[in-house]
Write a structure and sequence with these properties.
The complex is a heterotrimer. By secondary structure, chain A is an alpha+beta fold. Chain A is built from 8 helices and 7 strands. Chain A folds into 2 domains: 101 residues, Ubiquitin-like (UB roll) (Roll), CATH 3.10.20.30; 120 residues, Fumarate Reductase Iron-sulfur Protein, Chain B, domain 2 (Orthogonal Bundle). In chain A, β1 and β2 form a beta hairpin. In chain B, the strands form 6 sheets. Chain B has a 5-stranded parallel beta sheet with strand order 6-2-1-10-18. In chain B, strands 12-16-15-13-14 form a 5-stranded antiparallel beta sheet. Chain B has a 4-stranded antiparallel beta sheet with strand order 17-11-21-22. Classes of the chains: A alpha+beta, B alpha+beta, C mainly alpha.
Chain lengths: 251, 637, 213
């Protein structure tokens, strides 16, 4: 663990009430320890901005351990930065060099309007889940958990799809701002489990429709989402969604 | 006011059943006439909101994050306990009850803990039915593992992401209710006050974090599920937005705060490495199943771990606790780590870390088997530290993790304010002085899925609640008070940032009200916190304005509350002149340096009543009665 | 039919249209490529092949109409997708960088598609809608490829076709939900080979013609 200090130039998207169209502003980030996370680097810059009387950069974040899905920004053109399977809070400054210029932009999608600076409104993703990303069971009526054996392989596949943290990086990284990986992951998770089968048809149809209505783009099979997904969710989940949709829509 | 715990009579195993029978019911057709506010969307909040929605109540559910799915329950890694005895290794409801109450060092209610153990089995069934992808064996049945402090395998898990999967399960149920229209979601809202009309909780005031506007909502009952206050220490494993504000403001309105000094310090976290650090990351304690904890035998040994031969290593947990070894409860493990580091045996740059070594496990089971169990945790560790735990032992150190203290609640989970309920980590109810691993998830879900649906009905059916809406003057008064505070914060224009104050508070509490405490330093801490608070209100710098998305302002309000609350924590710690669970007062220890309880004088819950800004809080005591278990000195030798 | 329109006009439905119509073109290109091989056996062989095709009338007419319909659907849907995808990101990024998923083929799909359409029209005018009483198709080819410019345009166009196939071929399997870790690598490889075969196979015809005449 070698603790070095680097200096950087940040170009950060600023957008607020007084600057509704937004613009990239340049700030120095001096004396950044390479052990810091990207968000801790932003904290340091914000403390400095505050003491200079400049309003700190607004950015969403919460758990800072890569699981809540709240953080995210496009760093030098890459969603959550250039490291694979990493959220912005887990991107460490040891992956940058002294003197680097870093361009930081919010997720860009029509379905994710900017709230302020780097914070965007991702409630569209909740709306997609509301359309059917669940199994309709009320509390209290469940049978014993071991009644239905589920092959380990299927359970693991379902788990892999279910690890989606809903950060929206797939949408941000998609050349078409499509939410197919997000939607595909949820449809797959539930389609792979026997508990999810009774509603599989309805779910596939209504979730895909919800996605369309929210203004997301269409998938063009470029796999950028898969490569930027902090949980490594594969586009095979999109294929599974397509399969589920075809079955539900045309068979 | 005396504390009425409302514990039902009868034998322990029949209490909950009897109580459910005694509770009044709300006719299904009448449920839609009741509005219920739920604050928080973690395991407790989301499960409560969804379940109340399923029953037919109108639910308004608020959260501080941009989506209900982000609540910090999502970060729980290890697992969830349930007395299913699928492993056939001797588990039972009674044993889970006993382990939990003993783990809590006999500072929790028998009846509550027994109910929790009873409901644990239903939780697993419910979650499986929701599609939670728990780990399974090749035969397709659910897999179990053993978890910190338990000598049997009763922990259900989903790799290292159990909390995430359980929360997404509860979230999916919640989204289903949103779709049916029974639940309405209000994200990016921070609760800043509970509104009392005729002495009952009838609504809340929240700040819309996007526009900065204050919004009032009225209801027939309010459910608080806003988590713990671990961030009082600044550095903790809690999420950045976790705070005490919602609970604290209820406390200021008359809800008693119970056992605020009970803070769990989790033994396996990634050590602190710099002053800029914003949070600590927990490594699931399931790692202790296979990892061996050690330090060099000689203080000040700065050799790299691989250069220290076996004979010069001290596997101190295995040495001191032969039967539990590396699996001793969290408080014991934490205290021992601190003890070793205080002796100068700590490792790493700061000397505040111990090794957690997987070399033997890898040699025994193979790298693949270890990767299958802990792969994602190892990756996480490597991402943060840049070191590969397959090759170099992990370095770990304790960090603030969970708070057992919380709003005092009765058996119905209702606080001392009528109509205000508190669930999950935000209440004090089930974990006593120390929480066992894999039982926080259990409690949150038991409260939300299986307790509040009954006790809420009992309250609504048995109480006359005249209609109240937000035009009531109590709402306007509350909004005005909040507005005054916000304006005050923005007008100080001092020289120190909010975070700076928060860090100072954290340091005071960590040093003097942390893993080990003593009277002298606690008293000093009380004074320091008060001074810091005074400085805060003169010298804090909060940029931006009120009618905007202003994260510094949000944070300022939270830190302001922590600065008051910190003093309450310290006061409670001073008052409890014994050691129990995580509250280790160095003045009270056995010859073996174990926590020495004083059951004669302190077998009670300390519940604090707010009496105004300039007067001392008043302590009320709820005596704990143990009819079914014998109070023993914990021993993990 | 309401349900059909509703389902086919979703994001997945439109992709299905592209996949199914695309599959039609894959078949067409395959047959066309094989047919073109007759060129290498001289004028008689080629004209015999053309003659055989004409004997299949009216089947050929049906196939032509089907191809026309496929083209109209493919182009229309593609245009709708292009516009929707453009609109889905109202503000563009200042810096964009691929994570490695995009290929030249995938990046250029709408553009290669557009130029292929233009080329197909030109191609049909040159070879299909000609007065066959004046000129055999063989002579038409020889005359046309006598022009260096047309030859270069033709070669450029078939390279675009190759690029379009490079992304389109595996993509149609993905869209149809036929993505399996065991088979996808094979599908990807076949797609690339087919793309190269189409580009090279078509491009060689004018070169051969210019060489022999």
């Amino acid at each position: 663990m070698s603790n070095q200090t680097i200096n950087l130039t940040l170009k950060v998207w600023r957008q607020n009430k007084n600057n509704p169209r937004g613009s990239l502003e340049t700030y120095p980030a001096k004396g950044i320890s390479t052990e810091m996370s990207f968000l801790e680097m932003l904290d340091v810059v914000n403390e400095e901005l505050t003491s200079q009387g400049i309003e700190p950069i607004a950015f969403d974040h919460d758990c800072r351990e890569g699981i809540c899905g709240m953080c995210g920004a496009v760093v030098n053109g890459r969603a959550h930065g250039h490291m694979p399977e990493t959220t912005l809070c887990q991107l460490h400054m040891r992956h940058f060099k002294d003197g680097d210029t870093i361009v930081i932009e919010p997720w860009r999608a029509r379905a994710f309007p900017v709230i302020k600076d780097l914070a965007v409104d991702r409630s569209a993703l909740d709306t997609i889940i509301q359309a059917g990303g669940y199994i309709s069971i009320n509390a209290g009526g469940a049978q014993d958990g071991n009644t239905i054996p589920i092959p380990k392989e299927n359970a693991e596949k379902a788990f892999n799809a279910a690890t989606c943290i809903g950060c929206g990086a797939c949408v941000a990284a998609c050349p078409n701002a499509s939410a197919m990986l997000f939607t595909g992951a949820k449809i797959s998770h539930l389609a792979l489990l026997p508990q999810g089968r009774p509603e599989a048809r309805k779910r596939a149809l209504s979730m895909v429709r919800a996605m369309d209505e929210l203004g997301f783009g269409n998938c063009s099979n470029e796999a950028e989402c898969e490569l930027e997904c902090p949980k490594g969710i594969s586009i095979t989940e999109i294929a599974r969604m397509n399969r589920e949709f075809i079955k539900a829509a045309f068979l | 006011m005396t504390l009425e715990s409302k514990i039902p009579t009868g034998p322990l195993h029949e209490k909950w059943d009897r109580h459910r029978f005694d509770l009044k019911l709300v006719n299904p057709a009448n449920r839609k006439k009741f509005n219920i506010i739920v604050i928080g969307t973690g395991l407790a909040g989301a499960s409560a909101a969804a379940t109340l929605g399923e029953l037919g109540y109108n639910v308004q559910n608020f959260c501080i994050q941009d989506s209900p799915r982000r609540a910090h329950s999502i970060a729980a890694q290890g697992g969830i306990n349930a007395a299913k005895n699928y492993a056939n290794d001797g588990d039972s409801i009674w044993r889970l009850f006993y382990d939990t109450i003993k783990g809590g060092d006999f500072r929790s209610r028998e009846a509550n803990v027994y109910r929790l153990a009873q409901l644990s089995v239903n939780i697993i069934d419910q979650c499986v039915a929701q599609g939670v992808p728990f780990a399974r064996e090749y035969g397709g049945l659910l897999d179990n593992r053993s978890f910190g402090g338990a000598q049997l395998s009763r922990t259900f898990y989903a790799k290292g992401q159990t909390g995430q999967q359980l929360l997404l399960g509860a979230y999916s149920s919640l989204m289903r209710q949103v779709n049916t229209g029974k639940v309405e979601i209000f994200p990016r809202r921070e609760m800043l006050d509970v509104v009392l009309v005729d002495g009952r909780a009838r609504g809340i005031v929240v700040r819309n974090l996007i526009t900065g506007e204050l919004e009032s909502y009225s209801a027939h009952a309010v459910v608080l599920a806003t988590g713990g206050y671990g961030n009082a220490y600044f550095l903790s494993t809690n999420a950045m937005s976790s705070n005490v504000t919602a609970s604290y403001r209820c406390y200021k309105k008359g809800a008693y705060f119970a056992n605020p000094c009970f803070t769990q310090i989790h033994p396996t976290c990634i050590p602190v490495h710099g002053t800029y650090q914003s949070k600590l990351t927990l490594m699931s304690e399931s790692l202790r199943n296979d990892g061996r904890v050690w330090v060099p035998k000689e203080p000040g040994d700065k050799r790299a771990p691989e250069q220290i031969p076996e004979s010069e290593r001290d596997y101190y947990l295995e040495r001191k606790y032969p039967s539990f070894g590396n699996l001793v409860p969290r408080d014991v493990a934490s205290r021992n780590a601190k003890e070793q580091c205080d002796k100068g045996k700590g490792v790493g740059e700061t000397g505040y870390a111990v090794y957690l070594d997987f070399a033997d496990a890898i040699a025994r089971d193979g790298r693949e088997a270890i990767a299958a169990k802990y792969g994602n945790l190892f990756e996480m560790y490597e991402k943060i530290t840049g070191e590969d735990p397959y090759v170099t032992p992990m370095r770990i150190y304790p960090a603030v993790h969970y708070t057992m203290g919380g709003l005092w609640v009765d058996y119905n989970l209702m606080t001392t304010i009528d109509g205000l309920f508190s669930l999950g980590e935000s209440n004090f109810s089930d974990h006593g002085a120390n929480r066992l691993g894999a039982s926080a998830l259990m409690q949150g879900l038991a409260d939300g899925y299986f307790i509040i649906p009954y006790t809420m009905g009992g309250y609504l059916a048995g109480t006359h609640l005249p209609e109240v809406d937000t035009s009531a003057q109590e709402f306007a008064e509350s909004e005005n008070r909040i507005r005054e505070q916000v304006d005050k914060l923005l007008s100080i224009n001092g020289r120190r940032t909010v975070t700076d104050f928060h860090k100072s508070l954290g340091k005071i509490l960590w040093d003097k009200c942390g893993i080990a405490r003593d009277k002298q330093s606690l008293e000093k801490a009380g004074k320091e916190v008060a001074e810091l608070r005074e400085e805060f209100w003169k010298n804090v710098n909060v940029p931006g304005d009120a009618a905007d998305f202003n994260q510094a302002l949000e944070n300022a309000g939270r830190v302001a509350d922590f600065l008051e609350f910190g003093e309450l924590m310290v006061k409670d710690a001073i008052g409890r002149e014994e050691s129990c669970g995580c509250h280790f007062n160095t003045g009270y220890q056995t010859e073996d340096n174990e926590a020495l309880r004083c059951d004669e004088t302190f077998c009670h819950v300390s519940a604090w009543e707010y009496t105004g800004p300039d007067s001392e809080p008043v302590e009320h005591r709820e005596q704990l009665h143990f009819e079914n278990v014998e109070l023993t000195q914990r021993s993990y030798k | 039919m309401n349900w059909f329109i509703e389902n086919i006009s979703t994001a997945v439905g439109k992709k299905l249209i592209m996949a199914v119509t695309g599959m039609g073109f894959v078949g067409f290109i395959l047959v066309h490529l094989v047919g073109n091989l007759s060129f290498y056996f001289g004028k008689e062989a080629f004209l015999a092949y053309v003659e055989t095709l004409h004997k299949l009338d009216p089947l050929i007419l049906v196939i032509e109409l089907v191809l026309l319909a496929l083209a109209v659907i493919h182009v229309t849907t593609g245009t709708v997708l292009f516009i929707q995808n453009w609109r889905a990101r109202s503000t563009r990024y200042a810096v964009t960088k691929s994570a490695g998923g995009r290929t030249i083929g995938s990046r250029t799909m709408p553009y290669t598609g557009f130029f292929i359409l233009l080329y197909v029209i030109l191609h049909l005018l040159q070879f299909h809608f000609i007065d066959r009483t004046q000129m055999t198709p063989y002579d038409a080819a020889v005359n046309t490829f006598a022009s260096v410019w047309y030859t270069l345009t033709y070669i450029a166009a078939v390279i675009l076709v190759g690029l379009h196939i490079r992304h389109g071929f595996w993509s149609l399997f993905q869209t149809l939900g036929l993505n399996h870790e065991k088979y996808m690598p094979v599908i990807q490889t076949v797609g690339i080979l087919f793309a190269i075969a189409a580009a090279v196979g078509f491009a060689f015809v004018p070169i051969y013609i210019r060489a022999v005449t």
